[in-house]
C-alpha cells in the first residue's frame, strides 16, 4: 500500500511539474527565436505587406496569415517574399535586427481561413521551432502572450493578456473558430503566435478591431485563429506533425544562447509560385485588408510602410547591380 501511495504521489507531482506555468520572460526566451518577420514585395516595389510568422518545423516551414503574403491587387503570392530571423539580441536598430534575411516561397494558402504556409529557401536549418498545440485545452480567462512586430513599436515585441471569448465560424466562415483576446495586437502582429502560459502556441493572430461604425475607438478587441483549426488545415496540406514542446524548448534555448551567423541577403530573381493549393472545393476569397495607415508621428521605433519601402528599394538596387555585373561578364 505504501508503494502504491508513493507511486500515485510521484505521478501527481510529475503532472504538476508538466503543467507548471511559465513567466512571460521564460515564455519569450523559449519561443521568440522561432518567431520571424515576413515581408512581401510586388513587382513594382512601391508598396508591400509586412507581418509575423512562426517556424513550426525545423526544416523551415513557416505558418503565417494569408493576407501577409498574398497581394490584394492580384490575389496571388507576392513575387518576392523575405523572412527575417530573430537576432541573438534585438537592439532597436532595424539594420542590425533585420540582418538575417532568407527568401521564402508560398506552399499553400487559404484566404477564408487567412492562413499561409511558407518554406524558407537558400538557408540551412535546423531552425528553432514553436510547438503548435491543441487549443481545446485553452479556456476563457487563461493567460496568453503574443510575439510580433507591431507597427510603431519594437521588433519581436512581447504583449500579454488573457483569452476574452471564443467565437465559432468567425465572420460567417464555416470552421473558422477564433479566440478573442485583450492581448495587445496591431498591424505587424498579423500571422504571429498566441502562446499560452506553458509556452504552447494556441492561436495565429489574425484580426483586430479598432474603430466602430460610428467612429468610436475600440480597444482590447483582437482575434486569433485557434491552433486546432490551423493544425487541421496543415494536415490537409500534408503537414502531419510539428515539433514537440521539448524539441521547441531545446532548439529555441540553443538558438537564443548563441549569436546567429548572418544569412544570405541575395534577392529572389524569379517569382515564387504556390506548389500546393488548398483542398479542392475551398473557395478562395479576397485577402484581409490591412488597417488604414495612420499619419506618422515622431520618436517612434519603426514605421512599417517606410521599412517595406526601404527594403524593397534595397533589394531592387542589389538585383539591378547583379544583372549589370552579369551583363558585363558576358560582354567579355
TrEMBL record:
Where is the stretch described as Disordered? Answer: 250-332
* Origin superkingdom: Bacteria
Q: Keywords on this record?
A: Hydrolase, Protease, Signal
An example Gene Ontology molecular-function term: serine-type endopeptidase activity
- The reply on keyword Signal is yes
Q: Name one GO biological process term.
A: proteolysis
| Region forming the signal peptide | 1-19
Give the organism the record lists.
Answer: Nitrospira moscoviensis
- Name of the protein in question: Trypsin-like serine protease
Keyword Membrane appears in the UniProt entry: no
**InterPro entries per record:** Chloro_Bact_Ser_Proteases (IPR051201), Peptidase_S1_PA (IPR009003), Peptidase_S1C (IPR001940)
Biased composition, class Low complexity, residue ranges: 265-278
